[in-house]
Amino acid sequence: MSVLTVRPAAPVRRPVRLPAPAATWIVAASAVPAGELDIGLLAGPYVAADVLARRLRTEGRRVVLTTGIDDHHPDVVARALRTGRRPDDVAEAFGEAIAADLRHAGVRLDAVARPARDAGHRRRMQAWFRRLCAEGVLVGRTVPWLWCAPCGHWLDGALAAGRCPGCDAAASGGACPSCLRPNEAVELAGVRCAVCGGTPEVRPVAGYVLPLEGFRERLREHWAGLPPVAGALVRWPAEVPATRPGEYGLPVDGARLATAFGRALTHLVAAQTVAADGPYRAVHFLGSRDAALHTLLIPALLDVAGLPLPRHLHISEPYTTGAGRPLWAIDAVADVGADTLRRHVCAYRPVGRPVVHRDRELAGSGSRLTEGWNGWLAGVLAVVRDEHGGRVPDAAPGGAGWRELRAGLERTGEELAQAHEPAGFAPRRVVALLDGVVARAAEFAAVNAPEPDPGRRAAATAAQLTVASALACWAWPLLPQGAGRLAATLGVRAGRPAATALRGPAAGTVLRAPAGPLFGL
Ligand SMILES: [Zn+2]
Ligand SMILES: [Zn+2]
After folding, report:
1. What spacing in Å lies between the alpha carbon of 101 and ligand 1's midpoint?
2. Is 251 strand, coil or helix?
3. Gap from CA of 92 to ligand 1 centroid (Å)
4. Which protein residues have a CB closer than 5 Å to ligand 2 (ion)?
């Protein structure tokens, strides 16, 4: 994992090249280093983005998986003020923790955009800011901001507490957790300082705004026929602040970049870096609170820069653990292992509706792997050990019901391919299809267990090893640890293309069963 870096300027004369196939740029929405990584964020953008990236890589497609860490987010400042620390120290500590948590959950990122820690990225954002001002994309405007005199800070994000101007639910600055309407803190009804509870003053502040009206039709057209994101386009205000007062945020011309605009500009610079390697198609994974940022603000800036707009959005609803009882990703990985956690957050992925976490469902996700999957696999490996000296039998796959099972697996392979397409990516369906493979294989094993003829027994065992090999292939994007162990046991390659899924291990291969469980370690 590296920080996105500046590339040298392109040479004036480029060698003639054949057009490269477009890369798939998978973007997981930026994290805010104001706390540990919560299981809700794994269930939202991160694990799903990683599963898609892994699957597309097995197909030989060029994939870039990135996210960002927004050190300048006002929630970092709020956390610092509440705990008596410096915002920089809060961002540093939680930024490192989040990166480590993602690694432990098996999320393999190619780059993390972190302008606060990357002078090159920062300079390019500042250059873009000046260019957008010079071209009149950003315009000077004096806008009201909230100032808490006793605390001595401007209110933004989690520092402002009030009620949503759209639905009247309790909300902080940024986006309403109930109706998702984006807001500026000054719009909140009954707004107070979240640190001291005092009523802030409204002060006029000169700065820059990005008027959005000019982009609305173009973006409406772009999103037509794509997932229903029109709500965000309707609710987004006519203009958003590009700058904010105060001492937090990336410095630009005597001010600081405003939160949402700063995130969009971070993305724009990352997009230029990705585009320098050739054409790309972007697929974004984000929580619903970031919908307006990814449907309007980011595309608007990409449009100005002449870069490709996002092609597909995968928007998740909140996955919550109940008030005051967070479940940190790091604890969940330690408790149940990365594979069980990845399987669980995909099986209960909060798409189309919010999801409330239940411990017994997480335990159920684990036992599906440790009892269902491992139970069947242990049975096959025991037969190989006891009846074939630990080697793959030299027999063509067969047995009662093999023809039907094989046809079913071919259909499953096609359905899995569909479920892993960037447009219709469906992690919940992936989990169900993989469970179906194991269920059918276990049934096949039970039906063939009483077979007395050694030749037919060997054929049924070869058939099950073919299914195990397919499972190692198909499960790898979702469950890389267990699928990797299964592949090593069978002597087949982990993360191989799905087109080779139904090739079983070679006859005579010595199977190296691991000491521990295959899945759900
Ligand atoms: Zn609301
Ligand atoms: Zn205050």
Report:
1. 31
2. strand
3. 31
4. 148, 151, 193, 195-196, 198
This model of the complex carries an ipTM of 0.97
Residue range 470-494: average pLDDT? Answer: 97
Query: What distance in Å separates the CA atoms of residue 121 and residue 195, rounded to the nearest whole number?
Result: 32
Give the pLDDT confidence of 333-371 residue by residue, as tens digits: 999 999 999 999 999 999 988 899 999 999 999 999 999
The rounded mean pLDDT for the chain is 92
Measured between alpha carbons, how far is 89 from 79 in angstroms, rounded to an integer? 11
Higher pLDDT, 12 or 292: 292
The residue count for the chain: 521
For residue 216 the two structure tokens come to: 């609305």
Residue 278 predicted with pLDDT over 80: yes
Reported confidence tier of residue 301, pLDDT bands at 50, 70, 90:
very high
CA of 256 to the centre of ligand 2 (A): 20
Mean pLDDT for 57-82 is: 94
pLDDT at position 302 is 98
In whole angstroms, how far apart are CA 85 and each of 82, 256, 466? 8, 21, 57
Pick the CATH number of 2-356 from 3.40.50.150, 3.40.50.620, 3.30.70.1450, 3.30.465.10: 3.40.50.620
Query: For residue 38, how far is its CA from the centre of ligand 1 (angstroms)?
Result: 23
- For residues 238-264, give the mean pLDDT: 92
CATH for 359-500 (1.10.730.10, 3.60.10.10, 3.30.9.10, 2.60.120.1440):
1.10.730.10
In angstroms, the CA 493 to CA 448 distance is 28
Ligand 1 centre to CA of 317 (Å) is: 15
pLDDT of residue 20: 66
Instruction: Please give the structure tokens belonging to residue 121.
Output: 């990225």
Of 493, 487, 495, which is closest to residue 512 (Cα–Cα)? 487
CA of 82 to the centre of ligand 2 (A): 11
Judged by its nearest atom, the ligand closest to the C-alpha of residue 165 is 1
pLDDT at residue 230 is higher than 60: no
Domain map (residue ranges) of the chain: 2-356, 359-500
Which ligand has its closest atom nearest to the C-alpha of 148? 2
- State CA 264 to chain mean position distance: 17
Neighbour tally for 36: CB within 10 Å: 17
| Residue 250: closest CA among 364, 165, 127, 99 | 127
Please give the distance, rounded to the nearest whole angstrom, from the Cα atom of residue 175 to the centre of ligand 2. Answer: 20
CA of residue 188 to ligand 1 center, whole Å: 10
- Contact present, 465 and 394 (Cβ < 8 Å): no
Identify which ligand lies nearest to the alpha carbon of 166. Answer: 1
Cβ 424 vs Cβ 418: under 8 Å: yes
Identity (one letter) of the amino acid at 306? Answer: G
Q: Between residues 420 and 153, which one has the greater pLDDT?
A: 420
Instruction: Provide, rounded to the nearest whole percent, the portion of the chain with pLDDT above 70.
Output: 93
